C-alpha cells in the first residue's frame, strides 16, 4: 500500500487538545512524523504518547505562538530533528463570545488577534524559508465558517477568522509557482474546549441547538485537503448554503443565520442530530 504521508514531517500548532490533537493523530495514522506545538507541555506529552503508539516519530516543543522567540525555536528544533518540514497546520487559536457593546469586547478582539492571527503569521513566516529552500510544502490554515459569515455575539472571533481567510488568500497567490500549497479549513461549531467558558444561553444564537462537528471529522478534512491540494474546505457542506446566501445578499445571509437559531430549522437541515455543544462537553466530562 502506498502511504501518501509516510515519513512526511507535519508541524501542527495547537496540538495539545481538540482539533489539533485529532489532526496530529490523523497524520500519525498516515505514517507521518510529527512536530507538536502548544503552550501546555503536559498535554503535549499526552498527545505525543498517543501518536507514538500509532508508530509516529514525534517532537513536542512547548510553544506560545505569540512569542517570536518561541516560534523561531520551534522551527529551528523541527528542522534540526527532521531536516525538513513538509506540512504546516496553523491551528492554534482561541475564541471568545460576547457582544460588541460589552466592555471587554476590544480586549477580546485584541487577544484573539494575537493568538489566532499574529501567531499564524509568525509561524508561517518562519516556516516559509524552509519551504522555499525545499521547493515544496503545504500550509493548512484553520479558519471557521465565521471567517466568511459572522454571527451575533461572535464578532471578536469572526473579525479574526475573516482576517485568517484574507491572509491565506494573499499567501496562496504569493507562493504560487514555488511548489507551496495553501488550504483553508472553514469548520462550523466543533466539539472542543474552545467555547467552554461561555454559558449555553450566551452562545451565538445559531449555535444553541446545533450538534457540533467532531474534531476527528475536521482532522480527516485537513488530511484530505493536503492530499488533494484543496484551496478551501467548508464543513459541513450544508454550511455552503449560508455562505452562498451571504455572497448573494447580506439580507439573505442574515435571514439564514436567524433561521438557524430555530431548532425546527436545524433539525430539518440535519444539523441537530444529537447533543448540543454544551451537552457534548458535559457528557464528555461525566465519562
Ligand atoms: N471548536 C470550534 O467550534 C471551531 C470551529 C472552527 C474553527 N476552529 C478553530 O480550530 C482551531 C483549534 O481550536 P479547537 O476548537 O481545537 O479549540 P481548543 O480545544 O481550545 O484548542 C486550541 C489549541 O490552541 C492552543 N493554543 C491556544 N493559544 C495558543 C498560543 N498562544 N500558543 C500556542 N498554542 C495555543 C491550545 O493549547 P495550549 O492552551 O496548550 O496552548 C490548544 O491546543 C482554532 O484556531 C479555532 O479557531 C474551532
UniProtKB/TrEMBL annotation:
GO MF annotations in UniProt: oxidoreductase activity
Protein's UniProt name: SDR family oxidoreductase
Signal peptide boundaries: none
Origin organism lineage: Bacteria, Bacillati, Actinomycetota, Actinomycetes, Kitasatosporales
Domain Ketoreductase: start-end pairs: 8-192
Protein keywords: Oxidoreductase
Similarity remark: Belongs to the short-chain dehydrogenases/reductases (SDR) family.
One cellular component (GO) term of this entry: membrane
Source organism, top-level taxon: Bacteria
